[in-house]
Input
Amino acid sequence: MVVVLLSLGMTKAEIRKQAILQRKGLSDAQVAAYSRALLEHFAALDFSSVRTVHVFLPIAEKKEPDTFLFIDWLASQHPGIRIIVPKADFETALMQHYVYAGREGLLKNAYNILEPAKGELHTGEVDMVLVPMLAFDLQGYRAGYGKGFYDRFLARLGAQRIGLSFFGPVERIDDVNTYDVKLDCCITPERVYYF
Ligand SMILES: Nc1nc2c(c(=O)[nH]1)N(C=O)[C@@H](CNc1ccc(C(=O)N[C@@H](CCC(=O)O)C(=O)O)cc1)CN2
Ligand SMILES: Nc1ncnc2c1ncn2[C@@H]1O[C@H](COP(=O)(O)OP(=O)(O)OP(=O)(O)O)[C@@H](O)[C@H]1O
Output
């Protein structure tokens, strides 16, 4: 008898490749429409005890969700909430966090990530973090570009971790490691997955 062991899972490297291709296939109009759909789900969350939201700034060239929609919505609907944006140091894979002060002060780094050039550092608590990714799985694990920025950042925080993805989950990420931090939920254009 021949026994075939099928794994439904994928490695992060495989998932990254697939997700990058999937993203590349999106038109600008699709990115805009999907981003609006993500915002609709986000807007339905409970913000009653949220004072600080950490928002990644999109790499437009990589067709990431347009998080400026989220920033504009928060500023108009919850003006009391403080918006924090990151600045990544690629030598240490650590991020510094700044109080968002408008688009004027943002510059693109070598990876096309917009980031604050200067401003007020935020070193206090963060209640909610929007997490970028290439893909996530049914357990709430994610794969990003592979430098561990968000794993390092989220490890020391008690914040709500909210993933944003244009695509639904993969069944399972096989090579999850002890540093990988699970999401609390992941928003896709279709629905919100809770873990
Ligand atoms: N908007 C945004 N900011 C973010 C992240 C993200 O995913 N999205 N990151 C999430 O952790 C961190 C940045 N992570 C990155 C890690 C590696 C590369 C990189 O090596 N880029 C190469 C090749 C990428 C590719 O394979 O396509 C390049 O641009 O040449 C870029 C970003 C922190 N800030
Ligand atoms: N808290 C940590 N301390 C030390 N190393 C870490 C930590 N978190 C992650 N790493 C290391 O960083 C590397 C990248 O991790 P991983 O492949 O999970 O990245 P990713 O989650 O896809 O990337 P990102 O978080 O930047 O989107 C791994 O070698 C991992 O061991």
